[in-house]
Amino acid sequence: MDGLYKDIVAIRLGKAREKLGFSIEDVENETGITVKNLLLYESGKREPSLNELGALIVFYGISADWLFGINPKAEIQANVNVMNT
């Protein structure tokens, strides 16, 4: 990721987590991505791998279009199965 996408992804990863009410530890427990890395991703200091992006998209119930700012009108919808387990 470069420039614009990197910044948008960082901002939206944090926005999705906060809007859905997950703590950083909740995300770590469900995705296996460490708190340290999650904080680096949300601050834009490090880029997640493709596999990590996929795990976060599924966990948060978001679209890649929304995450990359391609479709800013898309809604964040929590993955009900993840939230109820």
Give the topology, please.
Blueprint: H1 3-20, H2 24-31, H3 35-43, H4 50-60, H5 64-67, H6 80-83
Taking all Cα atoms into account, the compactness measure Rg is 12 Å
Q: Tell me the count of domains.
A: 1
CATH architecture: Orthogonal Bundle
User: Which outline best applies?
Assistant: globular
Largest sheet descriptor: none
The multimeric state of the shown protein is single chain
Low-confidence segments, given as residue ranges, are 80-85
What does this structure look like?
- It is a single chain.
- With 85 residues, the protein is mainly α.
- It has one domain (3-83): 434 Repressor (Amino-terminal Domain) (Orthogonal Bundle), CATH 1.10.260.40.
- Helices cover 64% and strands 0% of the residues.
- It contains six helices and no strands.
- It is globular, with a radius of gyration of 12 Å.
- The relative contact order is 0.18.
- Residues 80-85 have low confidence and may be disordered.
Short description:
The protein is an all-alpha fold.
Supply database-style keywords.
434 Repressor (Amino-terminal Domain), globular, mainly alpha, 85 residues, single chain
